[in-house]
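In practice, a research group might receive sequence data for several interacting partners and want a quick structural hypothesis before committing to experiments. The following worked case mirrors that situation: the sequences arrive first, and a predicted assembly follows.
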Amino acid sequence: MSDTNNKDKTTRRDFISTVTATVGVVGVGAAVMPIVSQMNPDASVKALASIEVDISKVKEGQEITVLWRGKPVFIKRRSKEEIEKAQKVSLKDLKDPEEDKARVKNPEWLVVLGVCTHLGCVPIGGKGDFDGWFCPCHGSHYDTSGRIRLGPAPTNLEVPKYEFVGTDKIKIG
Amino acid sequence: MSEYTSKPEEKFEPVHTNKVGGSPYKGVVGWIDNRLPIIRMFRHEYLDFQVPKSLSYFWSFGGILTICLLLLILTGISLGMHYKPDAKYAFESVEKIMRDVNFGWLIRYAHMNLASFFFIAVYLHIFRGLYYGSYKEPRQLMWIIGIVIFFLMMATAFLGYTLPWGQMSYWGATVITNLFSAIPLFGESIVTWLWGDYSVGDAALNRFYVLHWLIAFLIVGVVVFHVIALHIVGSNNPSGIEPKDTRDTVTFAPYTTSKDLVGMLVFLLIFVAVMMYAPNYLGHPDNYIPANPMVTPAHIVPEWYFLPFYAILRSIPDKLMGVVAMVSSIAVLGLLPWLDFSKVRSSVFRPIWKQCVFLFVLNFFVLMYIGGAPAEGIYLLIGRIATAFWFAFFFILAPLVSLVEKPLPMPQSIHEFEDWKKQGKIKVFQFFGK
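A structural hypothesis for the assembly, expressed as tokens:
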């Protein structure tokens, strides 16, 4: 019963309590981690993360949609007017200001994720007030550079990581 | 020397780890009841239980909801024996249930329509609470538990709707899970974690199936809490006055049980009529098109019971604030016991609050209409006004009316209330005559 007499001093019991609590917290953490982690995409999902697309048959003004990571990607071969329109827009008129130049590697080709940045619907091409895309779900309008111009979406259509492979192929991812 | 050994023996407190006994029953029933007192508990809480004698049919919805929940679980277990939670086979397996499985069509239509009728009953149940002040002291916690059940219902209804893997399932799942992307900083990672992929797909469908089951049974658990709380605080009643003596009450059996049975039968009759004659009326035809991640349907709408909240989401032009508004539009109900601090419970004696509750109901239907209409022009404007009114009802009208309203003269007891009713001094809601 000597422990009860010197309460301010660290005792063997305090030490054991602290060690037990620490091991307990680490143990619970170690047990929770795999349970949480199992819900994230696994390596096989991540391995499918890049595709190559043949663009040799796409004509000027045409747009193709390909599936990448379960999401549609719009590949658009823009016409001269569309490029001009996209480049002329003043940054002041944009909700998410970004130069058209910063969104393309070659002004003729616009590559964007076909996923509305509002709640994930697929916008429809050639519709809307800005001749780019229009999202039917909640009415977001995108321009010919895939930039948000009107509606609830907070940001421009995302540009995925891609590169040109030779002259007629694009590698996405 | 320890202090314990010096204490005289007679000062020790007796302990009762063994509580066997006390049952009023004899024989086998008594033997069981002495060891597991559920039989006397059932008698105490369901047979001899005293309830206010003025309860109207509006008080049948608790029982109706219990029946709906049990039927949903029963039909759900049956469907689970045939459904395949795989993006490749889900749609087909539902069609197989509809065409091949014995009575599969009936079981699926029952499950689908029960979900809708569960919401109809819950909305009437909540209306009852609003109109008669059932959320007030001492029933605040019970009310809050009810709101928790409502949130869980919405979650499991949403998850269940994704399972047939039609176009509405797929795009509903995409839109709703994307609500989490509105969370600052971690939004995108949370959504990827929820999906287990970079889009809604096979991984998401599989876990939605598991969660649909899990939450269904969580609801059962929380309903048990709701009912335990009810049996502590007792039922409110149309007069809003607490019962004082046996002139004010009847026993649960046979009075309430028989009245509830009538309510349940009428409700189930309407349910069966809709299920048999218009099984897809409350659904959306686009959900019979298999899920296609490349094409969003031109006009996507959630199930009818989500429309008012969907309208609130869409009426706020900012993504994060829209989500916050939608969630808080329901959560705000939990504050009502404190925002409405009038001492009078029942709207029968609250002339101004009564009008406010009717306006709230009207506004609910306006939002429901707006939620199903395209988000543009005049609809957007009406949606914004209706959203503003929704919040004004709680934050402005409730406290303001509590302050300025002069309640009508009230009877002293429930039996006096009944007398007043007979004399025509007061008018109350009644479904069919007296």
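Before designing any experiment, note the following. Chain A has a mean pLDDT of 87. The longest strand of chain A covers residues 71-77.
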